[in-house]
Design brief:
Elements lengths: L1 E3 L4 E3 L11 H13 L5 E2 L6 E7 L8 E7 L2 E2 L13 E4 L7 H4 L3 H14 L2
Antiparallel strand pairs: 1-2, 1-7, 3-6, 4-5
Length: 121
């Protein structure tokens, strides 16, 4: 998970598509950029989850809705060093049992439930 600098929340890795229609490609690119990892296995090319969040006003950016199009990626823990980008306070492996302690939002609980059903966690 990444501790997002602007939102001050622990979130899954991700970012903005900036007009790119290949959202899986965007997810892989953002995961690499935010973690420093180069190797990810795509567990499914299908969209795994869609989260819709209201983002509060920040500096000159007005409040708006943010759409998280989520995919399931896997990277072996311990094979590469984590790199924290300028967009984050921290990036860390978080055990599935501790995710809700880091971020109690309903969408995070929904993702965990879906992962345990679909991927035998």
């Amino acid at each position: 998970m990444t501790h997002h600098r602007k939102l001050d929340l622990w979130l899954q890795l991700g970012g903005h598509a900036d007009g790119c229609s290949d959202l899986l490609k965007v997810a892989l690119s953002e995961a690499r950029e935010e973690s420093g990892f180069n190797v990810f296995n795509v567990l499914s090319p299908d969209i795994f989850d869609l989260g819709i969040h209201r983002i509060p006003k920040y500096n000159n950016t007005p409040a708006h809705f943010h759409y998280d199009v989520r995919f399931i990626l896997e990277s072996p823990q311990g094979t590469e060093n984590i790199i924290v980008s300028d967009e984050s306070h921290d990036v860390a492996w978080v055990h599935k049992d501790n995710v809700i302690n880091k971020n109690p939002e309903e969408s995070m609980a929904r993702m965990l439930k879906k992962m345990s059903v679909n991927f035998s966690l």
